[in-house]
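Known limitations

Files may contain more than one protein. Parsers should not assume a single record per file. Below, a two-record file is shown to illustrate correct handling: read the sequence, read the token line, then continue until end of file.
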Amino acid sequence: MNQTLDIQRLGWLIKRIWVENRKLFGMTYVVMVLLCIAAYYLGRDAGGAIVDRDIRFGSLIVGMFGLGVLFANYIFRDFSHTPSTMSYLLLPASHLEKFLSGLFYVFIVYPIVIISTHSLIDYAAFEIIKFSYPDTPMERTIIPYSEIFETYFTVQDTMFFNGVTFLMNFWTFTIMGTLFFQRLSLIKTAFLGFSSIAIIALLEYLMIHYILGDLSTISFNPEKGSLLTAYITVGIVILRFVLPLFWLLIAYLKLKEKEV
């Protein structure tokens, strides 16, 4: 039997997380659904037949970013308290399997549940509107769910990839912070994250001005334009691919360090 990664043991760990938390997951899910329904209800226009598209999209963003961070922190909560940490580390499974079982819920289960639930609520809301306001022209009321994404995340735009980039960095950074801090891990992680963003932004500003000088002259200087393009490309690659994997690697090494 593979001592590092065994599918049967990994499945057992995934099932363990569900069995131990299903009641809390269920109650949280009901509250989340009710909040989303309330947002749709309050987001209607004066006539009640049109739901603001910003409300529709915003409720999904809150679910993915805000609640996603809380969920990521909760899944790895066993490392926030010493007794829970010791109990979890004594489970007959490798640290890689324990790490992957948590990632399974954060990166696979959670997004599927959030997006599918939100789309069902969206569909049900407009079916109710069609039934309740039969005289309202539906072309003014019904905005296809796919169009919501096309509006905010057009194919030509980079907003979609930027959104996914921020999402992955938020979740992976939260996981890393949960493994590093034993008490008030979410608050400490948030403080560390905002501090890091401020420092990186300052360093980026200084670096750009040191390398490129006055940005207003770039349009008249092809060499500076090429440097800026290369700089942006490297930054995008780091943000989209390197940083999320780096946070996960640090989190995994920290988990491995805790192994008893």
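...continuing to the second record:
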Amino acid sequence: MLLVPFRDENAPQICDWIKSARDNFLWGGPAFEFPLQVDKVREHIAKKEVTPYLVMHDGIAVGYIDIYQVSKSEVRLCRVLIADTSARGQGLGKQLVSLALDVVSEDPKIRTASLAVFAHNEAAVRCYKSLGFELLPDETKTREFQGEEWTLYRMTKQIA
């Protein structure tokens, strides 16, 4: 598995991967409306604090992640996606996050990696915990999606 810089021309791929309003909210929270629009993805990746990556596996694009610069010492892993639902549950998400942590650890100023994950995304929560992320119970929030309240966890990991 390999992270490669995400480019403007990759934006349609993300839009093709997000098939429902629920998947869109699970992936991007309230930041993106469904159906996902190419121009909105391009606006997002153009932000100076966002470093987006396409995830390649065996030469095929299989996912996405962006690293958001929160401060000089903290980054947030955002919009983590293994696109092919049949490929989920095979450890690709763990590899993806591990690769992103490798990128993050190259910057000696970064001390903390954080992320947000919906509580009902249990596989993702387990994945992040297995990589050393810890839940911050005092920072648990909720987000509303189509009349449902979704619990949103915040997790952090100290970078050596």
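Parsers that stop after the first record will miss the second one. For reference, the second record is described as follows. DSSP finds five helices and eight strands in the chain.
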